[in-house]
Amino acid sequence: MEKHFNGKTAIVTGSSRGIGRAIAVRLAADGARVVLCARDSAMLQQATKEIEGQGGSAKAIAVDLRTDDAAQRVVDFALAGYGQIDVLVNNAGATRRGDFFELTEEDWADGFALKFFGAVRLTRAAWPHLKASGGSVVNISGVGGRMPGPYFTIGGSVNAALLSFTKAMAEVGIRDGVQVNAINPGSIRTDRFRRMMETSAAQQGIHAAEAEKKLIEGNKITRVGEPEEIAALVAFVASQEGRLLQGALIDMDGGATKVI
Question: How far apart are CA 206 and CA 250, in angstroms?
Fold first, then answer.
């Protein structure tokens, strides 16, 4: 495999599991020195050991990006460990689903605090260093930002805000020499997705595999994706080969997004 990121440093948030972990592993395999951050210290250490076991370089910091000083702490940690920042992947954040009238003010505040404001703060903190390196920001949003649904009001709103933020910062990036793009994953086979399928299967009295089949048919998509597929797209976007992409909102969702 060609080492597209030799000598480069990448920060990946929400990288203790799922899509974020797959992104960190892929960028490390492509030569990047990776800084992983999430709240779960034990899971972060496991991910770091996985990368190091494959010959990669990784450091981890356990942090809650909902707090005001967390973003600067992550940036300072990356600079102390590797001296530069070339890639920032804003992946952290999961939002609560449910009936709109049952979602609380706290649910809404929490949804924006991590995924949106966490990304905003980290982009601001890392920007001078990304400007110096001619680096890249990749925001992991989601199809709900363009295909909102009644049981995903928080997630859809947060994702839409993140897509708008991506477009705005892409224009700033043209001035400053920083690439900014977003990827919208659809249904991806993470632990969270598996739990959703198990819950859906129990409610319907069917097996999880049948629940997944019904989801695919109901959403009219090709299949459920794998975290490694999102990771591969991130690696392309942030590489020199993907450099023409700027302000792109890329749907990787098996055809879930039905709008132009």
Answer: 34
Which two three-digit tokens encode residue 23?
């992104």
- When pLDDT is cut at 50, 70 and 90, the band that residue 1 belongs to is low
Residue 149's domain is classified under what CATH number?
3.40.50.720
Query: Is residue 242 included in any domain, yes or no?
Result: yes
Q: Where would I find the beta strands (DSSP E) of 133-235?
A: 136-140, 179-185
In the chain, the number of structural domains is 1
CA distance 149 to 221: 16
Domain of residue 40 covers 9-188+225-252
* pTM assigned to the model: 0.97
Confidence at residue 94, expressed as pLDDT on a 0 to 100 scale: 87
Is position 44 within any domain? yes
pLDDT at 229 over 70: yes
pLDDT one-digit tens code per residue, 161-177: 999 999 999 999 999 99
